[in-house]
Amino acid sequence: TIANGGYRMQPQIVQEIREQSIKEEEVGKVIRSIEPVVLNRIDMKTEHIDRIKEGFRWVFQEGDGTGVKYFKNAPYKPAGKTGTAQTVYGGDDPIGRNAKGERMECYNLTLVGYAP
């Protein structure tokens, strides 16, 4: 929603369906286009959305943000948010325990990104 300037879009995997092409370097004719659907727009000033977008870009391209080491020299302008949550498995479940049966720390890593 932030990447789209505040417009919340219906999730969509396919943009278009094409005929197959005989030539490897060409794509076939479009059989069907699937148009994006706007669900709504968040009630937020454009300048605030732009500020958040700049922060997301900073995470991937500037300073010492988590994504910088992976995206700083990308040939495009990626942006996004990373997150890490430390947790410990509990209970009697053997999953999350080492060979001695001790609980192990684990990390829940997330990355949500976009690129124009």
Automatic annotation (TrEMBL):
An example Gene Ontology CC term for this record: plasma membrane
Penicillin-binding protein transpeptidase domain sequence ranges: 1-116
InterPro entries: Beta-lactam/transpept, Beta-lactam/transpept-like, PCN-bd_Tpept
GO molecular function, one term: penicillin binding
Stored Pfam families: Transpeptidase (PF00905)
Any Gene Ontology biological process: cell wall organization
This protein's name: Penicillin-binding protein
Gene source species: Bacillus wiedmannii
